[in-house]
Amino acid sequence: MIRGNRIFLSCAYWAFVLYVFVPLILMVMMGFKDSKFIGFPIRSWTLDWYSGVFADAEVLSTFGYSIAIAVLSTIASVVVGTWIAVLLERSRFKGWGVMFGLTVLPALVPGIISAIAFRIYARYLGIEPGMGAIIWAHAVHNVPFVVLVVMARLSTLPKSQIEAARDLGADPLVAFLRITLPYLVPAILGASIFCLLLSFDDFVRSFFLGGYDPTLPVLIFAKLKSGMSPEINAIATVALVLTAAIGIWAERFTRRANKDTN
């Protein structure tokens, strides 16, 4: 019985791996096709589509624009999310559940509804479509993920360490900066990378709140209007490699940080 369960779980795992990675492999392969059309078989291979990505000033500027938005929105969401997480985890007050529910609500609202709401609210506040509006929308959407990750880490912090610091004369701010914040570094880094990737990949909010300069997902969508081509596959592959590299680096750094703090 146990052997049968192991075989079933193993088959289910590898079926999931194939389901996830086969489309990605096919996407990467199509970026090497020496033709303007997507489809098999691939009779000849070329690097022209990938070299074209790095030679295209529009694509490169869009990459930089998307990265800048992702970094700035991540910084804002991490600062706000960490502050809210510390407030919620360290204090229990009347209305705590309501505040927690309102905090995680932006992550539960469907993207299209969230984007429409942000567009209406931005117009009401006089915020023009563009980089600032996108950063604002991405940061609000990402705050709940920071709160959940940081609260999970904060719940494992021994209270005796904070109490010892207070007994030695440290005020709440010093205790936070010297005890709590270093302990939260792995969680903050993990939440930052997650928010960075979410923002970089966000299409709906970027589409509704963007100005004349498109983010990378919006640019890819615009190119799709003229049909699929290996150029789109090459752009998507470069983005995939970039995000994968960031994710792998973050995972290794987080693992080392966890060992240092434990």
UniProtKB/TrEMBL annotation:
Cross-referenced Pfam families: BPD_transp_1
Predominant localisation class: membrane
Keywords: Cell membrane, Membrane, Transmembrane, Transmembrane helix, Transport
InterPro entries (alphabetical): Bact_Polyamine_Transport, MetI-like, MetI-like_sf
Membrane among keywords: yes
Annotated transmembrane regions: 12-32, 63-88, 100-121, 133-154, 175-200, 232-250
All residue ranges annotated as the ABC transmembrane type-1 domain in the record: 63-250
Compartment annotation: Cell membrane
CDD domains: TM_PBP2
GO biological process, one term: transmembrane transport
Membrane topology: Multi-pass membrane protein
GO CC annotations on file: plasma membrane
Similarity annotation: Belongs to the binding-protein-dependent transport system permease family. CysTW subfamily.
Name assigned to this protein: Spermidine/putrescine transport system permease protein
Originating organism: Cribrihabitans marinus
